[in-house]
Amino acid sequence: MDDAASKPSSAAALEAAYALETPDDNRQLYRSWASTYDQDFIDATGYVYARHVAEVFDRYADPDADDPVLDIGCGTGGVGVALRALHRGPVDGIDISPEMMEVAATKQTADGEPVYRSLREADLTARVPIEDGAYSAIVSAGTFTFGHLGPGPLDEVLRIAASGALLVIGVNADHYRADGFADRFDDDVATGTITPPTIVEVPVYSGDVGDHSDSRAMIAVFHRT
Q: Is residue 10 part of a domain?
């Protein structure tokens, strides 16, 4: 079957995304979806989650900070575009799908500069190719959700966060409750690993996506100690 024939519709792909089980499942889905993801998912559903994560980061970050921001699960670049529009950056991205990052690499700012300074393939269920404490600003939207990542990979996120780093991590609200993210954050606070998180709840979509139209996300805002 050729790539065009195997591309899922936005509704079918959304259901498939929530049903993923392994990193290879993720790679396969997003390989077939990458070239039309922006049009048949972000635009078609009114996907506002990425913009909300960028806005929350901008609200809590030092107004004069210019440290590189790591976008975890950057996909085709929605968070990066929103961050650069808010004059935040430079932005680096990691994602499990090289095809999605190929699209992200084409994104430009209003001044014609690349949105992303660097992009690299990484699987957060394993060790990512980034040094300990490399980033003082980390964001994520759409990666901690059903079929993608549970709270376990936060170990790797925290490993690459510098002491004092600001983290703005979005988690699907149903996933947050079902998979123990609150307990995980409580444990990290108790061990002195992070500061107590502020939780900002936001909508994921502004359009009609059927059963998922009312989807919400919990954006956890905290610092690495």
A: no
CA angle 35, 89, 76 (to 5 degrees): 10
> Which CA distances in Å does 107 have to 7, 118, 224?
22, 12, 30
CATH number of the domain residue 81 falls in? 3.40.50.150
Determine contact, residues 40/10, Cβ cutoff 8 Å: yes
Condensed to tens digits (0 to 9), the pLDDT of residues 4-53 reads 444 445 555 556 555 555 666 666 666 556 678 788 888 888 999 999 99
Q: How far apart are CA 2 and CA 202, in angstroms?
A: 38
Q: How far is CA 102 from CA 14, 70, 96, 170, 202, in A?
A: 21, 17, 12, 23, 28
| Domain containing residue 179 | 47-223
Distance CA 80, CA 50 (A): 8
- The two structure tokens encoding residue 98: 């090289």
Q: How many domains does the chain have?
A: 1
CA distance 106 to 88: 18
Question: Is the overall model pTM greater than 0.90, yes or no?
Answer: no
